[in-house]
Amino acid sequence: MLHPDDGMGQGFIMARVAGEALAPKWLKGDGFAAARAALTGQCAQVLARLHAIPIAEVAGLALPGGRTGEARMRMFAHYRSFGINSPVFDLAFAWLNFLKAARLAGKRMAFLLPLSQTGQKFVSGRKPGSAGPVRLAIRRYLKRQPQARAAQIWAALSAKSPKGMTFYDNRLGKYIETDGQPDTQYRQFANLVSMERRLLAPKCVGFEANLQGLANP
Q1: Beta strand ranges found along 42-179 (DSSP E)
Q2: 106 band by pLDDT with thresholds 50, 70 and 90
């Protein structure tokens, strides 16, 4: 129902179900005492039904594939695409990376404890003024074509991919694989275009003002 130019990823229609979604209310509210008593059993029943679905019946669904490490990178890229820094999520991803390293190394956790400090990488983010390869490619294109939209930039870059980047448009969606970097989903790409355009806007305004000044001395 959504188009690529919307820059919002994949969309779907849901039916509204009456009820309460705020956890503090149904965890503590007197009116939800009966629901709390039945909640654990009902959740178990739903999970059991989901796990009982034959794989052949869902073979046609556009579900993400690959290894768990790839899924973790996709989740991290999706989280970063919102343009926010949440210490809770940063620490969670750092801890998952630490556990992965510990399992692969097969050594004592105490020996690998310093690796948990990789959380600092996620908490601090990039250095001011620095940018990843995808954002740099967008920045270079916008300097040549300041009015270009996300779809136009995507088409141009995918037609002649910068070194180290591979553009995909398949059942998993539109995304970019970059050497040594997490995948960049199209929504994140569109967000980067918007951010770069905002950074470029003051320069464009100043340039236009100079032109007007020359035209009207």
Answers
A1: 165-170, 173-178
A2: low
Confidence at residue 104, expressed as pLDDT on a 0 to 100 scale: 65
Q: Taking a C-beta distance cutoff of 8 angstroms, is the pair 187, 7 a contact?
A: yes
SS3 percent helix, strand, coil of the chain, rounded to 5, is: 60, 5, 30
Closest CA to 190 of 127, 148, 162, 160: 148
- pLDDT tens-digit profile of 24-35? 888 888 888 998
CA separation (Å) from 210 to 18, 147, 205, 206, 216? 58, 19, 9, 6, 10
What are the tens digits of pLDDT across the range 47-58? 999 999 888 888
Closest CA to 92 of 83, 110, 106, 79: 79
Q: Does the pLDDT of residue 209 top 50, yes or no?
A: no
**CA angle at 135 for the pair 134 and 141, rounded to the nearest 5°:** 95
**Total-model pTM:** 0.40
**147: its two tokens:** 């009015």
SS3 assignment, position 175: strand
- The Cα 47–Cα 51 span in angstroms is 6
Measured between alpha carbons, how far is 4 from 196 in angstroms, rounded to an integer? 19
As a three-state string, the secondary structure of 176-191 is EEECCCCCEEHHHHHH
